[in-house]
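Q: Here's a chain of 187 amino acids. Please give me its 3D structure as tokens.
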Amino acid sequence: MNIAAEKTLLEGLAREDKGTIEKIYRDNYNIIQSLILKNSGTTDDAADIFQEAMIVLFEKSKSPGFELSCNVKTYIYSVCRRLWLKKLQQMQRFSKQTDDMEQVMPVEEDLEMHEKRQNDFFIMENAMMKIGEPCKSLLEAYYIQKKQMQQIATEFGYTNADNAKTQKYKCLVRLKKLFFAQYKNGL
């Protein structure tokens, strides 16, 4: 934890600095949205819960003598998680007590897992940018746009679906090499 950076974030929030508030949103909202969506919520629920957590953090940042004993990200995640579990209990979608859930879903482990997944996606995105054409477009057509091999063969000018499939395989091997080279080197 970079104590100086976390303290700067809290000070900026206390001053209602727009840049700091945007940074906190940018760095944390997707994680919270993912948490809420995976646990019976909607995007509106995620926005509401995140806003409530931001208000809690804002009020704490204005309190004299308040010192954060964890990262801002961990604090927001923890507050959002508790708020969401409480809301689920109120809506009777969730029958166990919130305290029981603490033992099942430790905040730090869940957050670390999500951050690792986000990092892996970032590395994959970098590898896709480096793979070049036509591999990038071909892999996107197959895996993201869910196009059939025959359609890909036609669009990319391959003589048949088998040739397109062979090229997709070669591109995938190149992508894996790029991904794991970046992954091994920590990007």
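Q: Can you summarize the key feature?
A: The mean pLDDT is 81.
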